[in-house]
User: Fold these one by one.
Assistant:
Number 1:
Amino acid sequence: MKNILITGGAGYIGSHICIKLRENGYQPVVFDNLSNGHRDAVASDIAFIEADIRDRAALNKAFTDFKPVAVIHMAALIEAGTSMVAPADFYAVNTAGALNLLEAMRQNGCKHIVFSSTAAVYGNRDTGLLSETLDIRAENPYGRSKAMVETMLADFASIYGFHAIALRYFNAAGADPMGRTGERHNPETHLIPLVLQTAAGQRDHIKVYGTDYDTPDGTCIRDYIHVDDLADAHLKALGFILSSETPALEIVNIGTGEGCSVKDIIVLCKEVTGRDFAVIDDARRPGDPAKLVANPAKANALLDWQPQYPSPRQIIEHAWKYYQSTLKNTR
Ligand SMILES: NC(=O)c1ccc[n+]([C@@H]2O[C@H](COP(=O)([O-])OP(=O)(O)OC[C@H]3O[C@@H](n4cnc5c(N)ncnc54)[C@H](O)[C@@H]3O)[C@@H](O)[C@H]2O)c1
């Protein structure tokens, strides 16, 4: 079986990808420092290396011990808001950490990589759907720390012969449809889990940051992509790079092409949970673009990928089911 090194595999998205990899004949090897992930999010019979991507010796040992045919690189600091006050941490982990990983790959003869990039590289635009051909206009250090990795990957592809794909995810949401894993960030900053925590009575209210954006209801619009569809996109991306003959970097949006506002999400959460709760309007947060919605045409054409769960209601239903199961487990 082919080993795949998955950095950040104990995190929200990574734990879903581990499940998909195994279901499709790959053997995941998780490399995660558990700074934000959970050991129990990864099945106990999956190889687990608790280490930091900035630790070259630990990376070298992982390549020597497991000889992965490819890397899925997800380990990163993910909070755009925090990056506005602590940018150095983001460049150290997300950018320098990625360079350390790429160098370890080069040293160990592994040249296939799927990289977790982000829609945050686009920033604020007047255009409709965002296509990969647009220039980089990240509004925060988080987005810039990821864009720099894309630049490095392009050079590693053209000069060192890497086969790379950067997936620019839009807003990952939902949970495994079978309830095996889901979103457990701590602290949580993502909208859907925050609203569901409020519906469950774990928070007094939900804040809406900015109601004066140039959008139909004044709140920010995002493209919510089911985490199971995201995991599926990684499988397709892996298949693509492993069968590609020519070294290259491909950059591919992973989103549905449909936007949903903050207010839309709150209404849907109230409907799905059947609960009412307080909603408080607040000021805009720095670094939040008004609208981020993918043009998913390249993912459809290049990877033959289509979302199976495009409905925000179904995304929320799966997230709610998983969240309720975590509440039961902690009682
Ligand atoms: N969640 C989203 O909506 C979203 C959107 C766009 C891009 N992304 C990207 O997807 C990836 C995964 O996101 P997520 O939501 O699953 O986040 P997450 O925080 O749940 O997972 C990240 C994992 O990386 C690990 N990690 C962090 N720093 C590390 C280090 N220095 N060494 C080793 N491991 C380290 C954490 O312990 C965690 O398990 C990230 O790269 C993120 O930037 C996420």
Note: Residues 87-107 form the longest helix (21 residues).
Number 2:
Amino acid sequence: MALINCPECQTKVSDTALKCPKCGVQLRKPKRGFFGKLFKWGFIGFNILMLIWLFSYWDSVGDLANTAGSDAAKAGAAIGGTIGTSMLLGLWVFGDIILGLFVMFTRPKS
Ligand SMILES: [Zn+2]
């Protein structure tokens, strides 16, 4: 464990300290732990995944509507698409809230 000089008050502080004990200036940014990183990247990955999923879903619904022969089939595809979209969006929001809470709980304490 080495000692460094605080850039603000020049007090000798441990290089593992996050804050200067004398003036309270932040010396290092607190790092996320393993789970903190995991949830942070999980959160980002989840959003990307849901975006891709939603677009591929719209793509397949569009194909279905285009290939549908009758007007009733077209209407069915449109209704199904709307229901499916709201379900996907609901799942997205729900997942974001759950993952967001985990990201918050695993946030480094300063
Ligand atoms: Zn200081």
Note: The first helix runs from residue 34 to 67.
